[in-house]
Amino acid sequence: MATERNDAGPERGRIRVEGYDAATDDREFDTAWEPTLQSEEGKGRLYYAWRRFKRNRLALAGAATIGFMTLCAIFAQPIRVPEQVPVLAGQLVQPVALAPADPANQEVLLGHQPPTTEHLFDWPPSMLHLFGTDWAGRDILSRMMYGARWSLSIGFIAVVVALFIGVPLGAIAGYYGGYVDEVIMRVVDLLYAFPFIVLAIAVIAILGRGYWELVFALIVVGWLAYARILRGEILSVKENEYVTAAKALGATDRSVIVRHILPNAMAPVIVQATLSVGTVVLAAAALGFIGLGLSPASAEWGVMLRVEQDSMARGRWWAGFFPGLAIFVFVLAINLVGDGVRDAFDPQGEGGERFR
Question: Is 91 helix (H, G, I), strand (E, B) or coil?
């Protein structure tokens, strides 16, 4: 193979190979990708996680299912401001009613009617019982839509409040260490000694049944996982050089934790919180099924299963099938979203780099 060295002009130092395509040799580096990367500058981890999440079709299907169920819960019946609010008491804030019937309207003579589409195109759809009726003649579809307010709100509220408790405690324990870490983690270990559902039952037995009592019981057992996961992440993150540099520049502990450590340690906590919504809804339904949830007159999905368990044994399958199906679909959708969030935050996963 013959080669020659060109030592003159701007081509000095380049090697030419005979028989090699000159057009290929002289081509310039393709910079078509540069505007894309330049336009992406300054984007944080959440931006690229969202880009990866959007490519997960199962996760998007789960998110769409959760959004649909949430809209059904919000627009099932009109919403008024509670009477406890002094200024806006009784004000109508949501006038739409998508439920085909009043979920509290009882017609005992129509009890345990099977699912029917006989009046599907009638208006108003007062006689439509697409999912059948329960023992009191109440429309099951309407009660499921209205009951989603109880089940979904319990899940989201309990997880959000548990995050606000577990994240600060886990951050303090992991950052400061020492006696602070020992005290917080020993409390976590003590509460972890009790099974999840048993501890919730104990709290409800002390406080009594009710919506906020149930939420509080699920918060007591829910913040433990966030504190433990975040503590473990912070123990490794706080040793990084950028944390040391922030301290050397005189940043306060609060600034170091909030601005430098938490953004790099929250990914596992976000994944855990997403998956925990389904776990909390399932636990609330389980407590309602054993009689420790909301009152028997409520439309919470677990309570509906408990009230109709004898009816299902007698062949009236629709009475408990559809509430159980709602729990199954919601928990499945949450798990799909949780898996998508986990993959989106995984830097080693497929598409982890910036558009390889």
Answer: coil
Show pLDDT as tens, one digit a residue, over the chain (356 residues): 444 455 555 445 555 545 544 444 444 434 333 333 333 444 667 788 888 888 889 999 999 999 999 999 999 888 887 776 677 777 788 888 888 888 888 887 777 888 876 655 565 555 567 888 888 888 889 899 999 999 999 999 999 999 999 999 999 999 898 899 999 999 999 998 888 888 999 999 898 888 999 999 999 989 999 999 999 999 888 888 888 888 888 888 888 888 888 888 888 999 999 999 999 999 999 999 988 888 888 888 999 999 888 888 788 888 889 999 999 999 999 999 999 998 888 756 554 444 34
- The rounded distance, in Å, linking the Cα atoms of 168 and 183 is 14
Cα-flanking dihedrals φ and ψ of residue 73, to 5°? -70, -40
Distance (Å, rounded) from C-alpha 271 to C-alpha 226?
10
Tell which residue, 322, 315, 309, has the closest CA to residue 131. Answer: 322
Instruction: For residues 52 and 345, give the distance between their C-alpha atoms in angstroms, rounded to a whole number.
Output: 8
Instruction: Say if CB 300 and CB 284 are below 8 A apart.
Output: yes
Place of tokens 């407590």: 287
